[in-house]
């Protein structure tokens, strides 16, 4: 039985009874098969190659490195030196730092008035058209000012303009104002305070300080608190802004409690700068920043 089974298997494998025809001749090479699959198998006279053809159009170059003049040992250090100097100049203009590379934030130099913020009159009065706060998400100093605004519940009292970090569109620095919405259009504030970039805000607020036609030469930093009615800068120091906001929230709660006791819960009963702890908080803040 076993020899008969072996014979049948041998007959099946040696014939094309299963529809299988063994290949005739040598199998094509891998390069040939790839070339045929790409549609380039018609030209049998060309020799197969495993690399794509060289491009006919090459980018234009000076040919310095290939020609050897100037020597590469001189050209590469020179290019690195020029690149580093341009980068350092740009960093000195955009970001102030000391000799060790530590960031130093410059405060507003002239005309700031960190006096207490004016309260609205009455329970339903608002200060939305009196003050405006400019902050940007990439800035850590803006983060803590925005956090204070949220904790004290002042978003409805002082409008916030979220700046866009785009140094290519900004005329100076890197902050650009977003496209103003319908609420900004209705507010009777200067166009320079709601369109353009932060440098335009500084220039407008400095219009009474600088000679006519001269622009603000300092750094245009955020956060920035502006009195939009007078068109002047209150302060651009984040710690001063937080102190002013906390003082405003405290006095606003007292005002509402005196006018109408039912409105005393409009603002959270949170005091971020308790009376009697000012020096301790200031010392701790200096140690942190």
Describe the structure.
The protein is of the alpha+beta class. It has helices at 2-14, 30-37, 64-67, 72-94, 140-152, 182-186, 198-205, 238-259, 278-288, and strands at residues 131-136, 160-165, 175-176, 224-227, 232-235. It contains nine helices and five strands. It has a five-stranded mixed beta sheet, sandwiched between helices. Residues 15-20 have low confidence and may be disordered.
List keywords for this structure.
289 residues, elongated, alpha+beta, 37% helix
Short note summarizing the structure:
The chain is α+β, with helices and mostly antiparallel strands.
Distance between the termini: 96 Å
Q: List SSEs in N-to-C order.
A: HHHHEHEEHHEEHH
Number of helical segments?
A: 9
Strand order of the largest sheet: 3-2-1-4-5
In terms of per-residue confidence, which ranges show pLDDT below 50 for 5 or more consecutive residues?
Answer: 15-20
Structural class: alpha+beta
Helix content: 25-40%
What is the 3D shape? Answer: elongated
Largest sheet: 5 strands, mixed
Query: What's the alpha carbon Rg, rounded to whole Å?
Result: 37 Å
- Strand content is 5-15%
Please state the average pLDDT score. Answer: 78
The quaternary state of the protein chains shown equals: single chain
Total number of beta strands = 5
């Amino acid at each position: 039985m076993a020899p008969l089974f072996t014979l049948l298997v041998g007959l099946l494998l040696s014939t094309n009874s299963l529809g299988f025809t063994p290949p005739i001749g040598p199998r094509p090479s891998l390069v040939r098969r790839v070339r045929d699959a790409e549609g380039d198998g018609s030209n049998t006279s060309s020799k197969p190659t495993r690399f794509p053809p060289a491009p006919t159009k090459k980018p234009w170059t000076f040919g310095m490195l290939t020609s050897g003049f100037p020597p590469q040992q001189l050209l590469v250090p020179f290019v690195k030196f020029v690149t580093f100097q341009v980068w350092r100049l740009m960093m000195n203009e955009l970001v102030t730092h000391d000799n060790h590379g530590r960031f130093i934030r410059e405060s507003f130099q002239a005309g700031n008035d960190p006096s207490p913020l004016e309260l609205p009159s009455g329970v339903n009065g608002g200060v939305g058209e009196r003050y405006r706060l400019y902050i940007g998400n990439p800035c850590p100093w803006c983060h803590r000012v925005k956090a204070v605004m949220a904790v004290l519940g002042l978003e409805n009292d002082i409008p916030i303009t979220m700046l866009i970090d785009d140094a290519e569109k900004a005329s100076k620095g890197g902050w650009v104002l977003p496209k103003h919405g319908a609420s900004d259009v209705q507010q009777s504030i200067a166009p320079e305070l709601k369109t353009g970039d932060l440098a335009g805000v500084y220039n407008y607020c400095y219009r009474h300080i600088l000679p006519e036609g001269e622009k603000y030469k300092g750094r245009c930093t955020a956060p920035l608190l502006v009195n939009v009615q007078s068109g002047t800068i209150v302060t651009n120091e984040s710690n001063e802004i937080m102190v002013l906001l906390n003082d405003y929230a405290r006095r606003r709660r007292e005002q509402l409690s005196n006018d109408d006791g039912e409105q005393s819960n409009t603002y959270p009963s949170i005091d971020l700068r308790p009376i009697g702890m000012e020096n301790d908080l200031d010392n701790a803040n200096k140690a942190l920043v």
